[in-house]
Structures are given as structure tokens and as C-alpha cells.
Amino acid sequence: MQILKFLELIIPLATIPVVIDKLGISSFGLFSMVLIFSQYLILIGDWGFNVNAAREFSVGSINKVRFLVLFRDIQRAKLIFLSLILFFFCFLSIFFHFDLGLAITSWLFIAVSVMQCTWFFQARYLLLQLLFVSFISKLFYVVYVFYFLDDNSTVSTYLFWFSSSMLLTSLFSNVKCYRVMRNGLSKGVIKKTCWYKNLFMPFSKTFLLLLIEGWYLVSSRIVSSLNTPTFYYLSKIFFGLEFVGFFSVVQRIVSSVISLLIPLVDVTFPYLSQLVVKEVSIKGYVGKILSLVFFVNMFFLFIAFNFRFVIFDFFKLEYKYDSFLFLMIYSFIIFLSISGTLMVNILVAKRITSRVLRCVVIGNLFGYIMFFILNSTLDSEIAIAISMILNQFVVSYLLFIASRLSRPPTMTLL
Q1: Is 349 part of a structural domain of the chain?
Q2: pTM metric for this prediction
Q3: Same domain, 179 and 38
Q4: DSSP 111-154
């Protein structure tokens, strides 16, 4: 599965030089800022379901009927959210003259991302299937970039094809999820739970409980997701849009490595939930995950150091010592990011998520303060990288302390 994930990430990553060459570094920076803003809304639309819904179905605490009802409630809640976002984008286009094409393509990217049922594949150990479909979808995007993207292409056109590459994955996940859940149920039960008339019924109690718990997750993710666009904005103010383009390329490279490692945490989350339910020690599990992530991080730093000129030339970036140092320092966020995600999963498995928000808020504030201190001292873009590393370190450390102090409750959600 890791090989497929690697291929899925490395192929689109290889298109970045072509995209920068055709669109320009400034347009690529604009695309990255739009992408970050869209991902911020995606985090809200997910509402923590990819974690708490996966936990519920992994421990086997729900029967097939409730499974189907919860699927219905989660997806219709997401449709309501997407409808509100579409109305908001149309409002911006009409009254504030926001580019309509960019607004629609941004909404498409949000929609195909939010509607994916990743939580189902994670809980049922079927992520390999979803990953394979995602890999095939990415190939369509690659064909567009190499054969159809030209100098006259706009950011909105590029974003449309970038979003369309995920449409197949979203459709497959919903169809697969529905077919598996309805298997073995009578037509009467299916009609009673998923008939169109039931779409306007009140939400189930199970969903409402997950909605309450999801508030702590989504609020912390909202605050956490503000981190990258905030540093993008600070980069634009202090170092210019060209540096934002360079920053976005570095961020894409590092994020690809993080995305490659995330399945280690996602796939094993059901196993983690079972360990917590059975009150078995998780020290061995955590140690193995973090040891592997640390090794990968060090290997990435080794590659980045020894092939720095090749990397900068491949991505058509101007080599400067400060830029190279920025890449090296920012790379440490790989280990810190995975560590933070793992600590959050431990808190979710223990059904104690209220402590996540305060950890993220403290870490973000510390990072912003350190940026202004470091920037006044160094007067270099390196201040951005150091501040983001310190930010993530504080968040991960506080989450680790919270996970050590927290104890799973004796009651179950359902």
C-alpha cells in the first residue's frame, strides 16, 4: 500500500515544474493560496468524521442498520454544508466581483474532497482499494498537465482539472460504502432508512453524539489550519509573492512525504482503538510508529542535503543558501506533524478530544510570537521555517502530555 501511495504522490509532484513553467511562479503561488483556503473549508466539512466515525465502525459497536443510517446522516450533513459554501461563493462573485470561474472550481475541489467516505475504508481495512482508485484518477490529471496545459491556461482551468482527478475517487467511495452497508439487509429496511423521504427526517442520536464530539476536533483543526495560510500571508508581506511560490513548492514536497506516512497512522487507527477499549498498553505501538517516521525524516534530510542542486533545478527554483536552509529546517515538520496526528488519534480513541483545541491554540500563538522575534533578529525567510517548526513542536508536545494524562471513559458512545 505504501508503494501505491508513493506513486500516487510522486506522479503529481513531478508535474510541478511543468505547471510552474506554464502558469508562472506567481500564478502557482495564487493556486497554492486558493488550495490552502479550500482545504480550510474541507476541514470544516469533514467535521472529524474521518476519525470518530472510523473509530465507531472499527470496534464493532454498531449494527448494519445503524451503520446505514449513520452513513446517510453524515453524507446529507455534508451536502447541506456544500450547499451553503456554494451560496457563499456565488455571493462573493456577485457582490464583490470575485472571479466566478475560480469560485466554481474551488467549490468543486471542496465538494469532491468532502464527500469521500475515507472513514469507511479506514475502519474496514480497505484503504488499499481507495488508494488504487485515487492513483488511477491522478493519471488523468497528469495527462492534462503534460499534454493540454499551455501558456494560455488560467488558474481556474488548472484547478478544474486538478479537482476532476479526485471525482472518480469520491464516486467510488460512496458507491462502495453504500453497497457494502446494504448487503444482507432487506429492501424494506433499506427503503425505510435511505429512501428519499428519509433525507428530511431528524438526524439520528448516534450522529448527533458524533457531531458534538466532532466540534472539538473541527475547532482544533480550524485553528490549526489557520497556521499555513497565516504564514503564507506573512511571507507575502515580508518577502513577496515570489517567495510564497517557493514556499508553496517546498510545502508541497514536504506534505507529500507526510501524506506518504499518514497511512501508517490511518490504517492502524482501528487497531489503536481496540487496544484502548481492551485497556492494553499502547507504548509499543507508538514507539514503532514514531521510530519509523523518524527514520524516514532523517532519510529525507539526507536526500535533500546531498541532492540539493538537483532538487532546485528539477523544480525550476533559484538556488540560494537561505532557500536551501529553509528547505532543511522546514523538513523537520515531517516527524512533528505525524507525531501530533498520532497523539490526536490517541485522544480520539480514548474519547477525550476537548484537550486538543487548547494545545493547538497555545502552539499557534507561540509560533506567531516567535516569527516576529526571529524576523526582527534574522531578517530572513528562515524565520518562517523556524517559527513553524517551533509551533508544531509545542503542539505535539502538549498533545503528548494530554494523551498521557487522559484515561478512556468506561461508557461507550452508543
Answers
A1: yes
A2: 0.72
A3: yes
A4: HHHHT--HHHHHHTT-HHHHHHHHHHHHHHHHHHHHHT--TT--
